[in-house]
Automatic annotation (TrEMBL):
The lineage of its organism: Bacteria, Bacillati, Actinomycetota, Actinomycetes, Kitasatosporales. Its EC number is 1.1.1.69. It is an enzyme of class 1 (oxidoreductase). Gene3D superfamilies: NAD(P)-binding Rossmann-like Domain. It comes from Allostreptomyces psammosilenae. InterPro entries: NAD(P)-bd_dom_sf, Sc_DH/Rdtase_CS, SDR_fam. GO terms for molecular function: gluconate 5-dehydrogenase activity. This is Gluconate 5-dehydrogenase. Pfam families: adh_short_C2 (PF13561). Belongs to the short-chain dehydrogenases/reductases (SDR) family.
C-alpha cells in the first residue's frame, strides 16, 4: 500500500503543454496516481491523440482543454472550460514552454518576445487565473516547470535562461502572495531530458557527448524521471515546502 502522505486520489489537475514530452509524462503520472487530468496545448488533434494514449493509463479520467497559454483571453476561457469539465482545479502544473537558441547578438525581437510569452507570461496568466479560483477555496498546489537553466547558463541560450531564471523568482513570489491563503507553489527543474524540444541537441554528436559526460548520472533524462518529484510536490508529503525548485537533472546543476 502506498504511503498516505503521497495520496492524491480524486484531485483534479490541469497540466499546460501536455500534448507531448514532459507535460504528457507528468499528466500520465497524475492519471496513474488517481487524479482527473486536463491536458492542454494549442493543437486539438494532437491533444485528442494524447488523451487516447492516457485513457488506459490509470483510474483517473482525462479531458482536453485546448488553449494558448500566452493569450489572456484564451487562458480565462480555457480555465473556465477546464472547471466546467472536471470541477475545481486542485493542482496546476505550468509546463508549456519553448526553447530557441542563438547568440544574443543574433537574437531577434520577435524570438525574445515569443520566449518571454511562452515561458514566463504564460505561468503568470494561467497561475493568476487558477489562483483567483483557488484563493476563495483556501487550498491548491501549483508547480512551475523551471529548468537547469534557472540556475546556470551556457553560450547561446541566454534568453531561455533569462525566462527560466525569472520563472524561479515568479515561483517564489507566488509562494509569498498565495502561500498565506493555502496555495502552495514550487518549481520543478528538469535537466537535459529527451523530448522533441531537445531532439536537435541529441542529434548533435558533440552536444550529446557533452551532456553524457557532464551529467553525473551519465545519461539524458527520460520524461518519466520527473514524475516522482512532481507527485511529491503536489501531495501532502510536501505541505511545508514552499517557493523551492526541485532539480531533477542527474546531478548536473551541482557540477556545471
Ligand atoms: P516540447 O516542445 O516537447 O513540448 C512543449 C509543449 O508545450 C507541447 O505540448 C506544446 O503543444 C505546448 N505549448 C507550447 N506553446 C504553447 C502555447 N502557447 N500554449 C499552449 N501550449 C503550448 O517540450 P518539453 O516537453 O521538452 O518541455 C516542457 C517544459 O519543460 C518546457 O517548459 C521546457 O522549457 C521545460 N524543460 C525542458 C527540458 C528538456 O530538456 N526537454 C529541460 C528543462 C526544462 P503545442 O505546440 O501543440 O501547443
Amino acid at each position: 500500500m502506498s504511503h498516505p502522505l503521497f495520496d492524491v486520489t480524486g484531485r483534479t489537475a490541469l497540466v499546460t503543454g501536455s500534448s507531448r514530452g514532459i507535460g504528457l509524462a507528468l499528466a500520465r503520472g497524475l492519471v496513474q496516481a488517481g487524479c482527473a487530468v486536463m491536458l492542454n496545448g494549442r493543437d486539438p488533434e494532437r491533444l485528442a491523440a494524447a488523451a487516447g494514449e492516457l485513457a488506459e493509463a490509470g483510474p483517473g479520467p482525462v479531458h482536453t482543454v485546448p488553449f494558448d497559454v500566452t493569450d489572456a483571453g484564451s487562458v480565462t476561457a480555457g480555465v473556465a472550460r477546464a472547471e466546467e469539465l472536471a470541477g475545481p482545479i486542485d493542482i496546476l502544473v505550468n509546463n508549456a514552454g519553448a526553447q530557441l537558441r542563438a547568440p544574443l547578438q543574433d537574437f531577434s525581437d520577435g524570438d525574445w518576445h515569443r520566449l518571454l510569452d511562452t515561458n514566463l507570461t504564460s505561468a503568470f496568466l494561467v497561475g493568476r487565473e487558477v489562483a483567483r479560483r483557488m484563493l476563495p477555496r483556501g487550498h491548491g498546489k501549483i508547480v512551475n516547470v523551471c529548468s537547469l537553466q534557472s540556475e546556470v547558463v551556457r553560450p547561446g541560450i541566454a534568453p531561455y535562461a533569462a525566462t527560466k531564471g525569472a520563472l524561479k523568482m515568479l515561483t517564489k513570489g507566488m509562494c509569498a502572495d498565495w502561500g498565506p491563503h493555502g496555495i502552495q507553489v514550487n518549481g520543478l527543474g528538469p535537466g537535459y531530458i529527451a523530448t522533441e524540444l531537445t531532439a536537435p541537441l541529441r542529434a548533435d554528436e558533440r552536444f550529446d557527448a557533452w551532456v553524457r559526460g557532464r551529467t553525473p548520472a551519465g545519461r539524458w533524462g527520460r520524461t518519466e524521471d520527473l514524475v516522482g518529484a512532481l507527485l511529491f510536490l503536489v501531495s501532502p508529503a510536501s505541505d511545508f515546502v514552499g517557493g523551492q525548485v526541485l532539480y531533477v537533472d542527474g546531478g548536473m546543476t551541482s557540477v556545471l
